[in-house]
Amino acid sequence: MSIEIRPFDKKYSKATAEIWNKVIEDGVAFPQLDYLDETSAEKFFSEQDFTGIAVDTETEEAVGLYILHPNNVGRCGHIANASYAVKFDRRNEHIGEKLVSHCLSKGGELGFKILQFNAVVAANHSALHLYEKLGFVRLGTVPGGFLMKDGHYEDIVLFYHLL
Predict the structure, then answer these.
(1) Which segments in the chain show pLDDT lower than 50?
(2) Boundaries of domain holding 70
(3) Which of 84, 127, 143, 159 is the most exposed place for a label (fewest CB within 10 A)?
(4) Would you say 35 and 22 are in contact if contact means Cβ atoms under 8 Å apart?
């Protein structure tokens, strides 16, 4: 298996919508509640400062993605934020690590100085482990900051990484 991170192309709109929507459906990671269709996915992913698509070069299948954009505006516009999603049946193949590593590099290329995560769900042990492995610094915890799909509130963890 060979994974290549490519810039978003509208030919991946349907596949990226499906990957993104699965995370929303699971209800344990993204804050969004609304699903994307092919048209809204093309618009959403095209509007980011960068959207990276993880493509299996053997099959040309999109197997993951990330979005990168400012975390805030003006005097805080040098701080980026990102979200990551890996196709459900391709998880545990280190695709997420490739996406995050690419994002760190791309963020610096785009002039961001810091990558900050505002809401990593504390129950997302895989993400916590990956971010710490890649050198992210844990800023703290917001108790009950994320409404889980089942209706209970889970803590969220804030991280940053200098670019």
Answers:
(1) none
(2) 3-117
(3) 143
(4) no
pLDDT at 147: 97
Domain assignment present for 143: no
Asked if the structure places residue 134 within a domain, the reply is: no
The DSSP-derived string for the chain is --EEEEE--GGGHHHHHHHHHHHHHHTSS-S--SPP-HHHHHHHHHHSSEEEEEEETTTTEEEEEEEEEESSSGGGTTEEEEEEEE-GGGTTSSHHHHHHHHHHHHHHHTT-SEEEEEEEETT-HHHHHHHHHTTPEEEEEEEEEEE-TTS-EEEEEEEEEE-
